[in-house]
Amino acid sequence: MTQIVALVGSLRAGSINRKLTEAAVQHAPEGIELSVFDGIVDLPFYNEDIDGDTPPAAAVAFRQAVADADGLLLVTPEYNGTMPAVLKNALDWASRPFGSSPISGKPLAVIGSAFGQYGGVWAHDDARKAAGIAGAKVLEDVKVAIPQSVVRFAETHPREDEEVVGLVRGALTALADAADESVAA
Stretch 43-60: mean pLDDT, rounded? Predict the structure, then answer.
């Protein structure tokens, strides 16, 4: 069973990206277990001064969740042309300790939805860039950016949209395949 952990960049309970993540959990392909780590909301802003011998409990729990995962799925909206601060902060915590971070070499894909006509591609590009610099093995070919989210999902949940379900299943399959390749290497 491939274990994938999702990090949702929107903290709002009713967010489209949270619903997109729910669709991914519900429709994960056989052999893939997707769980959501909601604890990124509890991470303090990264500060090397508090990341010493006894880092905050929220950071320890987060790093353990990343370390235990076979792959990571970032699900992000676009805030002012980039990813939300909570997601960037999580990547900062995951990137330490330098040289032996839990995200190092971990397969990672970015998906999401936004109100605009491009579906949050700027945020997704920034998330891929930051995750790659943090050490993740970013799947550059996985691109799921669903535009016009407020209109498209006004009366339906993403889990009921066949196209969306197919895109999400494809992203999860690519992550599982990358995780298998990492284990085999």
Answer: 96
What's the helix, strand, coil split of the chain in %, to 5? 45, 15, 35
Q: Taking the model in full, what pTM does it have?
A: 0.96
Q: Nearest Cα to 45, choosing from 59, 57, 33, 62? A: 59
Residue 82 pLDDT: 96
**Please, what's the largest Cα pairwise distance for the chain?**
49
Distance CA 93, CA 91 (A): 5
Q: What is the pLDDT of residue 146?
A: 95
- Which pair of tokens denotes residue 84? 């939300």
- Asked if 82 and 75 touch (Cβ cutoff 8 Å), the reply is no
Direct distance between the N- and C-terminal alpha carbons of the chain, in angstroms, rounded to an integer = 18
CA angle 88, 40, 110 (to 5 degrees): 50
CA distance 71 to 96: 17
What is the pLDDT at residue 42? Answer: 98
